[in-house]
Write a structure and sequence with these properties.
InterPro entries: Thioredoxin-like_fold (IPR012336), Thioredoxin-like_sf (IPR036249), Thioredoxin_domain (IPR013766), Thioredoxin_ResA/DsbE_sf (IPR050553). With 165 residues, the protein is an alpha/beta fold. It has seven helices and seven strands.
Length: 165
């Protein structure tokens, strides 16, 4: 019985550590290149550097994702209530045309990038992407404050943004 209890405690500790809040992106994530609207490829690290000094919300989304589309009004409301926050949108759309159409259809205000690969691709794996929409909040120094939020977490995200002003 003691061995079983010990195994349970060890398993719980391993799972808890695996789900721990990250405070920075991995080197693999930072080196991944994303496409810009100008057809350039830029490392994720450079994208993040552009937002140092500002609280930043990153949304990973796709135009085909019904949960992403359903969350857009809440996202727009969050943008309206937080005009000093930068918003970065990273699309997981399968084609550039779908990505561009999604930006236009949803009138996405902020910086827009396209990963040009599926959620299971290198960038998705590097940020532990298991669901979209996925939201990541960075403080003014670029430190990750919220690593994994989904469309049901808007109240928590809004509360977090209030503390970061």
């Amino acid at each position: 019985m003691k061995k079983f209890s010990l195994l349970f405690v060890i398993a719980f500790a391993v799972i808890s550590c695996a789900q721990a809040q990250k405070t920075q992106f991995s080197d693999a994530a930072l080196s991944e290149k994303l496409n810009t609207l100008n057809h350039e490829r830029v490392p994720f690290a450079d994208i993040l550097k552009n937002h140092i000094g500002k609280v930043t919300v990153i949304e990973i989304w796709a135009s085909w994702c019904s949960d992403c589309v359903k969350a857009m009004p809440k996202l727009k409301d969050m943008q309206k209530k937080n005009p000093d926050v930068d918003f970065v949108f990273i699309s997981m759309d399968k084609t550039e045309d779908k990505w561009n159409a999604g930006i236009e259809r949803h009138d996405l205000k902020g910086d827009n990038y396209w990963s040009a690969e599926t959620m299971k691709g290198a960038f998705g794996q590097a940020i532990d992407l298991d669901w979209i929409p996925r939201y990541i909040i960075l403080d003014k120094t670029g430190k990750i404050v919220t690593y994994r939020a989904v469309e049901t977490d808007f109240d928590k995200m809004n509360a977090t943004l209030k503390t970061l002003k």
